[in-house]
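Trying the structure run again after the queue cleared.
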Amino acid sequence: MSKHLDELEQSLEQSESDAQRLEALLGILLAHKDEDFVEGWKFGKEALHLAEALKDRNSVASAHEGLANVLWKLAEYSQSIEHFEQALDKYLGLGDLYAVARCYCGMGIISGTLQDYRTALEYFEDGLSASRRADNQHLAATITGNIGHVYFNLGRYKEAMDCFQHGYDFYKEVNENQGIANMLGGMAGVYVYQGEYDKGMELVRRSLEAHKVSNHRRGIAVSMQNIGNTFHRMGKLDKAKIELKGALNYTRSINLKMMEYEVLKNLSEVCSDLGEEEQAAEYLRLYIEGQKEENAISVKRKNEQFKQRQLIREIQNEKK
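Done. Tokens:
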């Protein structure tokens, strides 16, 4: 348990009024957003009930938004959307446009996860409008990038490129390397999928350098892999193999297992195209073994999520 969470729970125990208790509950809910989702849900429900009893509209909205975020991580997408909608309704009544934009963004991400790209686009566009009216350019740039990825998945490459370029211009202006790297990666993908490999290669290399500046290890690994895959698409098989072996070594050095397996699959395909069947078979064997291991971990993870969801439902049924 983090020191911050310890302090919040201590504040909860020492709270002398309902208002203080509510503040602590909301803080714990926020702290659990990326940690223990079931615990977050429990504290969130308590915060929501207390906020409603106190008729604290801001806190009611915050509780709904927090619950939406933890339920999303538990893959309870329908319940998450319901809480986002409740939060959205409250924030609209309060005139909090930044919070409105956050809710639309969350609902857009869930829709995109479910590959409902049309709905995702509608939510993101509403979120973009709200973030602009709130004059929050950072969130507007983030949502614009999300819209770019939706357009990319829909095959609307010109519109995707416009979004990535807009996001890039903003992050460049505020000198935020992580945002710059993400937008360059998106732009590179558009060029590569349209067969403009030289342009794509230039941008993916720039994306790699920006990821290195911000020390974003997964971004570095993705960029290295994309360089190898771009060489493969260009028919430059020897260069593709060299780059992908570098990506493989890097993913192993940072223990990024899922990406390691993807790179092994890419290497198997390149070696097969080179006529190096023995190496291709070895990489394929390692990929299959890795996938079995990852599948086992995935099943365990899904079982844990199922148990957590069942626990939530049992608690809900007990209160009926």
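The chain has a mean pLDDT of 89. Worth checking whether this holds up in the mutant runs.
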